[in-house]
Amino acid sequence: MSDRTRLTRKPERRTDDPAVLHRLLDEARIAHVGCVRDGSPVVLPMAMGRDEDRLLLHGSTGAGMFLAARSGIEVSVAVTHLDGLVFARSAFDHSMNYRSAVLFGVATPVAPGEKEHALKVVTEHLIPGRWDEVRSPTPKELAATTVLEVPLAEVSVKVRAAGPGDEPGDGEDHSVWAGVVPLRTVADDPIPSPITGSSTALPRSVRALL
Amino acid sequence: MSDRTRLTRKPERRTDDPAVLHRLLDEARIAHVGCVRDGSPVVLPMAMGRDEDRLLLHGSTGAGMFLAARSGIEVSVAVTHLDGLVFARSAFDHSMNYRSAVLFGVATPVAPGEKEHALKVVTEHLIPGRWDEVRSPTPKELAATTVLEVPLAEVSVKVRAAGPGDEPGDGEDHSVWAGVVPLRTVADDPIPSPITGSSTALPRSVRALL
């Protein structure tokens, strides 16, 4: 049983531990980014990476949020892992184990001179080891790339990593099964593209995911 | 090879097919909900369920967004599945396969008389079959429950389900492996709570997740 799945009495907590935040971000591939457009909220999923103390967001340069960010745009970014389903004896007491970070800040495009570095960080974040297996971006490709950065300054981290809050004398029917079903993301068999030769070996970056 | 993983030439598309939207929502457990608070965006993860043509959101009654929603609050809700990582021959052409719904609307609390129904829908959405295995909510528990609803009226659905956009004559180095690594969420071995008897059989709802 790992630390994450050990059942404790303290089900939910905020933490200021940067190691928890960094691990949570480093294990995530998608961030949900909210901004205000014409007074209304908009939330979009984006590819992400972490570069030290800033979060990098990668999306289509044509997307409205990326255009609006040219001069800086206020965002809230949520990154969430659903780590398990919590089964209790009553419907009401069911819960989820999760790790979540909610970041507030101003998103700005990374400087042109930093774009290649930022693209490398995001690529390596999503697929460790891939950068050196493939062709580097051309100047034209970099010009078509926008990566936004948000400083990891104002961030709220919450973790629930516990079983149901049951006690022997809580009046519930303890013949009903209660506990946690952990959830995890796994990779299935790789599917080569039609023009990948059948004798082409899986690269190290793919094998590391399996 | 399933429809989802078949490699096609049309990598990205918007769809108005309600069946795609419904399946995407029905397979999701977490929604990312954005609202505007004091002029700034806030995005929070919430448990979710779908009840016909409305999305139900479940969270702590103490959370600011739930308090603000008492008289209706404008939200944007994103629900995203990351279905695979797309490996190309160049860093720039890497991508992700995903299904995403972005909903816009006004969130309001479900009526008091509908709360038990809404809690059942969310519970059954997250853990099919669980409602009938456990104790129903008491009036006090229902009073402490807030479920928000957002009509599935204004929603944008995007699906990318394709391989990398490679062509024999695209100038790339085709000795580099390209293709898709599908991703999937799985359940690990259930962890019983300390007071679940060791002879208590796993209920049907848990077994269905394994």
From TrEMBL, chains A, B:
Organism whose genome encodes this protein:
Rhodococcus rhodochrous J3
User: Taxonomy-wise, where does this protein's organism fall, top ranks first?
Assistant: Bacteria, Bacillati, Actinomycetota, Actinomycetes, Mycobacteriales
What is the protein name for this chain?
Nitroimidazol reductase NimA, pyridoxamine 5'-phosphate oxidase superfamily
**What InterPro entries does this protein map onto?**
Pyridox_Oxase-rel, Split_barrel_FMN-bd
Q: Which domain of life is it from?
A: Bacteria
- Gene3D superfamilies per record: Electron Transport, Fmn-binding Protein, Chain A
